Amino acid sequence: MTDERAPLDHEALRQAVTGTRWRSVRVVEETGSTNADLVSLAGSTDCAGSVLIAEHQTAGRGRHSRQWESPPRAQVALSVAAPANTSDQPQALGWLPLLTGLAVVEGIAETTDLSPRLKWPNDVLLFGDDTATDDGYGGRKVAGILAELTHGPSGPVVVIGLGINVSLTEAELPVPTAISLDLAGASVDRTQLAGAVLRALSRRLDQWPGDLGAVADDYRAACATLGHRVRVQMPAGEEIEGLATAIDSIGRVVVEVAPGHNVPVAAGDVTHLRVTD
Questions:
Q1: What percentage of the chain has pLDDT greater than the value 90?
Q2: By the 8 A CB rule, do 105 and 218 touch?
Q3: Which ranges carry the BPL/LPL catalytic domain (predicted)?
Q4: pLDDT in tens, 107-137
Q5: How far is C-alpha 249 from the geometric centre of its chain's CA atoms?
Q6: How far apart are the first and last CA of the chain?
C-alpha cells in the first residue's frame, strides 16, 4: 500500500500558500516529530512563519506525551510556527489549539464532501453510519492537534502540530476509535488537503488574538460537544460530570454539574472528555 501512496508535491504546496503567513514550507521524507524539530529550531532561530511537513513521522507527539506512528505518506503530518506574544492577553493562548481544529475542519470540508465536527478541545471527528464508537459521540477521530509554547530570539513562539489520517486502512489505524478520510469515502490529494488546511490556519491565526469573538462563534457552531452530558477526567484522577453548556470567551468548556452550578474547564487541565448521554 505504501508504494501506491503518492508523495507530496513540494512546489504545488508552496504555490498553494502564496499570500499567506507561511514564508517557508519544507517537506522531509522522515523525522521523529515535526513539532519537536520546530520547537528545537525556534530556540535559536526566528522561525515564525515556517511549515515543516513529514512524509513519515516515527515518534509523533500528542497531548499528555502520547506517541503515535503511521505508515509513510498515509497522513498529512505537519507543524507550523507562529508568533505568540500575548503579554496583554495571556488567556488568548487557550484559543490556539481550538482555532487550529477549526482550520482542519475547514480544510477537510474544502477538499472533500465530508462534514467534520470538533470534539472539545481539538479532536476532529467524522460521523456516519459506520463510525460508531464507545465514546458517546458516534464519531471517529480523523485528526488531532498539539500546540506547544516556546521562546525564540524574537519572543514567544507557538509551535502547532497536526496529523490528519488520509489513507490509513482499518488495519493501520492506531486505535479502533480512529478513522481515515479514505475509510470515510473521501479520496483526497494530500497536497491539496495540506494547502487548504494551511490557508485556513493562516486566516484563523490572522484573527488571533484581535478577533476572538468571530473565532469563538465559528468554533461553537462546529463543536459536537455542546449540548451533551460529559464526564471530564483530570490528571489527578478527579472527575467532573454534567452538561456541556458553553465554550467561554477563553476557550474553556463550561460544564453544568448541578442547576445553577457551572464549572469551566481548560484544555490543559483535562486528561479525557467523554460523552455520557
A1: 84
A2: no
A3: 11-209
A4: 999 999 999 999 999 999 999 755 444 454 5
A5: 19
A6: 39
Residue 139, C-beta contacts closer than 8 angstroms, at least 6 positions apart: 117, 119, 125, 126, 127, 131, 133, 224
| Neighbour-count burial for 196-213, b at 16+ CB within 10 Å, e otherwise | bbbbbbbebbeebbeebe
Q: What is the pTM assigned to this prediction?
A: 0.93
What is the rounded distance in angstroms from the CA atom of residue 73 to the CA atom of residue 167? 8
Instruction: Count other C-beta atoms under 10 Å from residue 108's C-beta.
Output: 28
Contact between residue 147 and residue 158 where contact means Cβ atoms under 8 Å apart:
yes
The more confident residue out of 3 and 22 is 22
Neighbour-count burial of 152, counting CB atoms closer than 10 A to its CB (0-12 exposed, 13-18 middle, 19+ buried): buried
The whole-angstrom separation of Cα 54 and Cα 76 is: 8
Angle between helices 95-111 and 212-222 (to 10 degrees): 60
> In 3-state terms, what secondary structure has residue 260?
coil
- 121 preceded by a cis bond (ω within 30 of 0): yes
